[in-house]
């Protein structure tokens, strides 16, 4: 099957390679001349036979919106656009409506797998009309891991990105739990070899997971994580998950706390903690640490 890919970064480029290795004909466009197969979007579309399919892997927000609208001017009735980036699910209805006026289908695809996807496969959560999804199944089958798991048609337009948002919210909570366990083990006077403890958990325990495997890998490379700063960004999906929990009145205690922990990691000297220290000093005479 033929496919166009717009955006050949860490994931888009590896997806192109995995698909080609599976026998599909893939043309990619990227603004980086060292990565691209074609000069521009019109050439990308011209290389594909109708009905065409173009997979968009560019940053969420305006870059995705601009790309979808540009493709809408170039594609024809019966073609399909797949947004595989980390778009907010509320953007999908806008994109689908814009393309529908031109007879072009739209699929939103949440993609998980990161830099390991080329080797291990990508977990795919897609939303859209069944007919459009069915047309793209050879591509989805080539990208997903082997076996029965790793792909879901989660529902209509928006469902794929919604499922990926919740997936990433869960990921925040899982990483926070491992991180807190790591810090407690490091602080304990009882445990002599923290990396070995994490390694021992990789088999036979209820906390084993791919994230645990990656934590073990990180500790093999840097046992005390001395090369890293304790600063964690967020891609936005954790925030959207918490916003949805508020909208639907669903308590997400662990996920919300893990998001706030990332915010705390960016503070060199928290004003909130200064206020707590001042209050403890005022009501109890507790010692305060002077500013350096």
UniProtKB/TrEMBL annotation:
SUPFAM superfamilies: 6-phosphogluconate dehydrogenase C-terminal domain-like, NAD(P)-binding Rossmann-fold domains. Keywords: Gluconate utilization, Oxidoreductase. GO terms for biological process: D-gluconate metabolic process; pentose-phosphate shunt. GO terms for molecular function: NADP binding; phosphogluconate dehydrogenase (decarboxylating) activity. The keyword Protein transport does not apply. Residues 160-287 form the 6-phosphogluconate dehydrogenase C-terminal domain. The keyword RNA-binding does not apply. Belongs to the 6-phosphogluconate dehydrogenase family. This is 6-phosphogluconate dehydrogenase, decarboxylating.
């Amino acid at each position: 099957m033929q496919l166009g890919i717009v955006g050949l970064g860490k994931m888009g480029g590896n997806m192109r390679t995995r698909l080609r290795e599976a026998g599909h004909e893939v043309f990619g466009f990227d603004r980086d001349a060292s990565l691209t197969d074609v000069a521009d979007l019109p050439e990308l579309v011209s290389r594909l036979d109708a009905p065409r399919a173009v997979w968009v892997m560019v940053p969420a927000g305006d870059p995705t919106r601009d790309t979808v609208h540009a493709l809408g001017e170039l594609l024809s009735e019966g073609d399909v656009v797949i947004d595989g980036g980390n778009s907010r699910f509320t953007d999908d209805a806008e994109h689908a409506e814009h393309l529908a006026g031109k007879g072009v289908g739209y699929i939103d695809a949440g993609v998980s797998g990161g830099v390991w996807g080329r080797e291990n496969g990508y977990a795919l959560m897609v939303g859209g009309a069944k007919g459009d999804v069915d047309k793209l199944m050879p591509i989805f089958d080539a990208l997903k891991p082997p076996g029965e798991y790793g792909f879901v048609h989660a529902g209509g337009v928006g469902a794929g990105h919604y499922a990926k948002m919740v997936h990433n919210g869960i990921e925040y909570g899982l990483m926070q739990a491992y991180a807190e366990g790591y810090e407690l083990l490091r602080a304990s006077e009882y445990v002599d070899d923290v990396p070995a403890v994490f390694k021992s958990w990789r088999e036979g325990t209820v906390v084993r997971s791919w994230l645990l495997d990656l934590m073990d890998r990180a500790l093999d490379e840097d046992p005390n994580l001395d090369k890293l700063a304790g600063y964690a960004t967020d891609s936005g999906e954790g925030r959207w998950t918490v916003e949805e929990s508020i909208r639907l009145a669903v308590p997400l205690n662990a996920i919300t706390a893990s998001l706030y922990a990332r915010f705390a990691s960016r503070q060199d000297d928290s004003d909130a903690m200064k206020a707590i220290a001042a209050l403890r000093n005022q009501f109890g005479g507790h010692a305060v640490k002077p500013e350096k």
